[in-house]
Amino acid sequence: MKIIVIGAVAAGTSAAAKARRNNDYADIVIYEKDQDISYSGCGLPYYIGGKVPSIESLVPRDAGFFKAKYNIDIFTRHEVLKIDIYHKTLLVKNLVTGNTFKDVYDKLIISTGAHAFVPPIKGIHNANVFFLRNVQNAVAIKTFMQKHLPKTAVIVGSGFIGFEVMENLIDAGIKVILVERAGKLTPNLDEDMSKYLESILSKMEISIFKNSNVVEATNQGVLLDNGTLIPGEMIIIATGVKPNVSLAEDAGLILGTTGAIKVDEHMMTIDTDVYACGDCIETWSAVTKKPHYRPLGSTANKTGRICGDSITGGNMIYTGNLGTGIFKFFDLSIGSTGLSEAEAIKNGYDFLVSHNIKPNKPAYTGGREMIIKAIADKDTGKILGVQIIGYEGVDKRLDVFVTLITYGATVDELFNLDLGYAPPFSNTKDPIHYTGMILDNALNNGRDLITSETLKKKLNSEEVFEIIDTRIEQQYQDSHIPNAKNIPHSELRGRLSMLNKSAPIVTYCNKGVTGNATQNILINHGFKKVYNLSGGYEFFEATKEK
């Protein structure tokens, strides 16, 4: 059997290696149009910033390695121009010599990846404008920096790559301005969490332009559609990627609703002899089971391995993904998994949202706060999605939530998790435990929550309700929610007669704990409609429009 793979980065090489482990007799060939193979694309921003000292450490394997270890022939600088699925042939061009030739396959794996989305910006191909998609892109950026010593840069786009490159350029002594076309930062965060992130970045004196459409790139910077010139001697375009599907589409293979190649759980296309994997395929949500496009290195490796197994008679299947993503910005960590609130609305869920602000470990061991936004299905009690912004330990909590969502955990189960505890690592009750307690109380024990966004809308309406600030008087005097009454928690029982039992009441403190304690007292004394502000005043204030 002859297996041909198109593409030799994460998915393609994973597929070929797994196919070889299953079948030592197959003839396996990979064609790759670029010169680098099996590289760590996610490490490229850190090479630019000097944290990775040499590009070779991100490209640890070459064609010789795969030939010696796996008996796989990899031909770099060879572009597949056409796939003929009826005759099972490929037209291949040697990009070094210019010669073309045909090759024949029994089984074909398409792993053509994705390409950087190129927005319609005048001057986007100028010498000082860069994309970051492969090794040579990173080398070009680093070379420009070493040759021209730029003092300013503009990054267009606020996704993972945008933030990672920004950190590394700042580390290199370059003043960076971030430009985002949308009204919020980072596609993987909901608007409230994006505002919370922005409040942190403002304290770090990071310059951000939102709702800003770039129309031209010049040697001096970028020009917005409102005429504003944002200075930058170098410009990084980080506006996302699109799947490379032209080969597959021209061959007559079906694309999914997201525009990527449609495959089944075995990575098979509509042709039983053609499979696909990596950033060129459409996957699906493990929560909704609906198609989505999530081009991540982890997914590419996973789908590649399944593809190589399936094509050689194995029984591995793909079960979907949660779109889990995490990135760092200096000591800040930003992660998400599962459905966002916006996606939960789009998919018709009746859901509850909680915001939990807790330190990752005790203050005496250097603990720092993280905020966890969790979304739970009211009908089943299952967790649908989580977003976390914090510092040390965000990755640990995110991965626990990934596991919980994957196996259908309900909110009442979180408190009983026997998580690892010692002061250098956690508190006795972990932020995960608290998230479970908050959601369980709201879903099953009548301790209703109200989000900052909902409260802000109510403040602008004519609805009659009371707001109780449960903090001490000095905190209230310093700043408080409009129309709030200051009744410190310690004084509440003596002042219950001042409150209207028939009117809805919102309680709040700094982060939610004392607000919940006040809510408990009111409910115990016969108040029927009592809501605790999710995330407390800290989250309310951080997410206000600036």
UniProtKB/TrEMBL annotation:
It comes from the Bacteria. Gene3D superfamilies: FAD/NAD(P)-binding domain (3.50.50.60), Rhodanese-like domain (3.40.250.10). Keywords: FAD, Flavoprotein, Oxidoreductase, Redox-active center. InterPro entries: FAD-bd_OxRdtase, FAD/NAD-bd_sf, FAD/NAD-binding_dom, FAD/NAD-linked_Rdtase_dimer_sf, Pyr_nucl-diS_OxRdtase_dimer, Rhodanese-like_dom, Rhodanese-like_dom_sf. Coiled coil: none annotated. The keyword Protease does not apply. Pfam families: Pyr_redox_2, Pyr_redox_dim, Rhodanese. Residues 461-544 form the Rhodanese domain. One of its GO terms (molecular function) is oxidoreductase activity. Its cofactor is FAD. Belongs to the class-III pyridine nucleotide-disulfide oxidoreductase family. This is Dehydrogenase. It comes from Acetobacterium bakii.
